[in-house]
């Protein structure tokens, strides 16, 4: 018996000739002759039947569909859209990093432990001197009825503001140096910035009011008591405190509403607006310009008022015929003029210095000069050439010493 198998491109057929079988495919053909065998014939029949069933099932199975070019392009477009959405989401996350910032890193004065302790003791001495000096002035003005005048009333308010401003920045810096840390929480940073702006702006406004007080005392002495009564003094002091509060609210809210994308490290020993703005995103420059314009307008208005007041004061003093009268008039103005000069010179140089000479160490020194030194030096300046204040302080100290004995 012969068995022949033929395979084409679509099916495979088994043919059984009488004497021989042929194995056929697309390339070769081989013939074999074998003797007839009934068992082999039945096996061949079963193989042929199973082959036909497998071929028919293979041909009836549908071919996998091929994606057209348009569907492929649509898929690529959807992929690009997905990538664009992810990029936009990443940018939004970077823009809203301020909501994820939980703390800031303040600038350390030094990394050496011995110098950190030296900084702690130095700031502690300055802080205690400011507390003692301003506390003595507040107590002397409040207890001595001879000092219940407009000038000393404003001086009392100035001492309170000095205590507030130095207490906002120095204790935190001392604690960081003592415990060898740099962190400050987001909420504490916002509170520190608010109170520092509040006290500094109110002090600047109060110095402007004090310039007007000196102008009335020297240029219009006959109307001094009428123009600056107790109610007028309270209103002017309240206006100074109110301007500080409104300015602090506006600047703090605008500063912390700006998205921060540049980390959380501040190049200053306390939270300061220029250092926080350095962490802002590039698109927020309009707000930065708005803050700068607002601060410049406020500072320039007070500065022009102070300058015009002192121009009138100097003109009036130079018209005084006696040298003793001129000396007395100048002695009442020099402490205020010295405080104003120290305040404005350090502030203006700290914020308006050229970027070419700016450096973290120089910024740190200027920040100490305008935020730490004036509150400690102002009581000394006012009591140095003021005999009435000296007498009141001496009387106060003697009463305290005698009571203890």
TrEMBL record:
<dbReference type="InterPro" id="IPR017452">
    <property type="entry name" value="GPCR_Rhodpsn_7TM"/>
</dbReference>
<dbReference type="GO" id="GO:0004984">
    <property type="term" value="F:olfactory receptor activity"/>
</dbReference>
<feature type="transmembrane region" description="Helical">
    <location>
        <begin position="289"/>
        <end position="311"/>
    </location>
</feature>
<feature type="transmembrane region" description="Helical">
    <location>
        <begin position="332"/>
        <end position="352"/>
    </location>
</feature>
<comment type="function">
    <text>Odorant receptor.</text>
</comment>
<feature type="transmembrane region" description="Helical">
    <location>
        <begin position="233"/>
        <end position="253"/>
    </location>
</feature>
<keyword id="KW-0297">G-protein coupled receptor</keyword>
<keyword id="KW-1133">Transmembrane helix</keyword>
<keyword id="KW-0807">Transducer</keyword>
<keyword id="KW-0472">Membrane</keyword>
<dbReference type="InterPro" id="IPR000276">
    <property type="entry name" value="GPCR_Rhodpsn"/>
</dbReference>
<feature type="transmembrane region" description="Helical">
    <location>
        <begin position="364"/>
        <end position="384"/>
    </location>
</feature>
<feature type="transmembrane region" description="Helical">
    <location>
        <begin position="190"/>
        <end position="212"/>
    </location>
</feature>
<dbReference type="GO" id="GO:0005886">
    <property type="term" value="C:plasma membrane"/>
</dbReference>
<feature type="transmembrane region" description="Helical">
    <location>
        <begin position="120"/>
        <end position="143"/>
    </location>
</feature>
<keyword id="KW-1003">Cell membrane</keyword>
<dbReference type="Pfam" id="PF13853">
    <property type="entry name" value="7tm_4"/>
</dbReference>
<dbReference type="InterPro" id="IPR050516">
    <property type="entry name" value="Olfactory_GPCR"/>
</dbReference>
<feature type="region of interest" description="Disordered">
    <location>
        <begin position="51"/>
        <end position="70"/>
    </location>
</feature>
<keyword id="KW-0716">Sensory transduction</keyword>
<dbReference type="InterPro" id="IPR000725">
    <property type="entry name" value="Olfact_rcpt"/>
</dbReference>
<protein>
    <recommendedName>
        <fullName>G-protein coupled receptors family 1 profile domain-containing protein</fullName>
    </recommendedName>
</protein>
<keyword id="KW-0675">Receptor</keyword>
<keyword id="KW-0552">Olfaction</keyword>
<keyword id="KW-0812">Transmembrane</keyword>
<feature type="domain" description="G-protein coupled receptors family 1 profile">
    <location>
        <begin position="133"/>
        <end position="382"/>
    </location>
</feature>
<comment type="similarity">
    <text>Belongs to the G-protein coupled receptor 1 family.</text>
</comment>
<dbReference type="GO" id="GO:0004930">
    <property type="term" value="F:G protein-coupled receptor activity"/>
</dbReference>
């Amino acid at each position: 018996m012969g068995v022949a198998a033929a395979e084409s491109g679509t099916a495979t057929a088994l043919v059984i000739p009488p004497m021989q079988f042929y194995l056929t495919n697309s390339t070769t053909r081989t013939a074999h002759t074998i003797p007839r065998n009934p068992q082999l014939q039945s096996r061949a029949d079963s193989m042929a039947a199973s082959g036909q069933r497998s071929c028919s099932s293979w041909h009836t199975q549908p071919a996998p569909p091929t994606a057209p070019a348009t569907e492929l392009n649509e898929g690529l477009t959807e992929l690009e859209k997905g990538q664009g959405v992810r990029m936009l989401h990443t940018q939004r996350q970077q823009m809203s990093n301020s909501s994820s910032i939980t703390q800031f890193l303040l600038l350390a004065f030094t990394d050496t432990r011995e110098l950190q302790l030296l900084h702690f003791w130095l700031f502690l001495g300055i802080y205690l001197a400011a507390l003692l000096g301003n506390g003595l002035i507040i107590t002397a003005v409040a207890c001595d009825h001879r000092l219940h005048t407009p000038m000393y009333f404003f001086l009392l308010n100035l001492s309170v503001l000095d205590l507030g401003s130095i207490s906002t920045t120095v204790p935190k810096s001392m604690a960081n140096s003592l415990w060898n840390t740099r962190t400050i929480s987001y909420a504490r940073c916002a509170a520190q910035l608010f109170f520092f702006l509040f006290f500094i702006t109110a002090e600047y406004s109060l110095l402007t009011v004090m310039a007007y007080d000196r102008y009335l005392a020297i240029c219009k002495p006959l109307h001094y008591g009428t123009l600056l009564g107790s109610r007028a003094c309270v209103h002017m002091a309240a206006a100074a405190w109110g301007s500080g509060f409104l300015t602090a609210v506006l600047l703090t809210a605008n500063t912390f509403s700006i998205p921060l994308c540049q980390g959380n490290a501040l190049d200053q020993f306390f939270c300061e607006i220029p250092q926080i703005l350095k962490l802002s995103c590039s698109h927020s420059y309009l707000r930065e310009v708005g803050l700068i314009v607002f601060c410049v307008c406020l500072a320039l208005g007070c500065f022009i008022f102070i300058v015009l007041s002192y121009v009138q004061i100097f003109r009036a003093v130079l018209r005084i015929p006696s040298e003793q009268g001129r000396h007395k008039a100048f002695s009442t103005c020099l402490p205020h003029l010295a405080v104003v000069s120290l305040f404005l010179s350090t502030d203006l140089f700290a914020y308006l210095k050229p970027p070419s000479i700016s450096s973290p160490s120089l910024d740190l020194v200027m920040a100490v000069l305008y935020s730490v030194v004036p509150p400690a030096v102002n009581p000394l300046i006012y009591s140095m050439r003021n005999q009435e204040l000296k007498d009141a302080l001496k009387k106060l100290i003697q009463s305290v010493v005698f009571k203890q004995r």
